[in-house]
Amino acid sequence: MYFSMTGTATLIDILRALADPTRLRIMRLLTRMELAVGELAQVLDQSQPRVSRHIRILAEAGMAERRREGSWVFVRGAPGIGGTPLAREVAGLIDRGEANDPAFAAQAEADRLRLGQIRSAREARAADYFARHAAQWDVLRSLHSADSTVEDALARLLAGSPLGRLLDVGTGTGRMAELFEPAADAVDALDNSPEMLRLARARLQHLAPGRVELVQGDFAALPFADAAFDTVLFHQVLHYAQSPEAVLAEAARVTRPGGRVAIVDFAPHGREELRSAHAHVRLGFSSAQIRALLTTVGFAPGASEALPGEELTVMIWTAQRIADAVHHLPPRKECA
Known about the structure:
The chain is an alpha/beta fold and 336 residues long. 45% of the residues lie in helices and 20% in strands. The strands form two sheets. A seven-stranded mixed β-sheet has the order 6-5-4-7-8-10-9, with helices on both faces.
């Protein structure tokens, strides 16, 4: 969840906030991508407390927004996600300033070069993580349909109506957010693991600022308002739930009337080793189970598809949110 003061800032507030070379550099960087405070400190070659103070001033002037993710704090520029018209005008002024001020342009270019090093470091960390876990994941992938087959089937089932605002629950490496971002109005990608969110950030950093918002949170207590999304997606995540009905009740709460949910998971199977090797709580779901769960929390089950693999069958279930039909279950602590 981001925190800012965009609604109260005046022109005087904004001009005071920008009357500092470091804060101008920060704003220029934030037009490129969301950054952690520590990453900004690295680019600017300044201490983290000093950079935090600059960010606080920008946030109070409505020019930046902050979000905590575990022990890290991430920052993005408010204009890119619908800040005040005044803030957007000032952002345009900074753009024109770089075009007409050679000294500022040179500093901004140097900062972008350092930013490129940060992007490379993110990609290297992601590659290292995948290398360490590749064998484990390859064993699981060998048991079910190819990822491309599942993705094509999911895209086909969701193609009937606009995605609107999409919530990707348990985003993991961000693959689903990346796949559906072009067709969505905006994407919120949620995961409970800071490490997975860092991997997702590396994958998604090429997207325009504000297109995908990465959020740390629990899938049984979603940090979003009621009826906030047009589409909610669970891709290979529901089998981690101790209480799938509580998780789906939360999905119903944040889905607008007429909105859709899509669940990608395994059909029932007997691979007990997935509990220890991959922390699966549920060994798949039957279609009858999913339909009953969806109906209980206020969805009308829709189209589904089975994709058999070597030993595991991947199922895709869809449903539509029924207005005023959500049965709210007591939330339980889960780990997505």
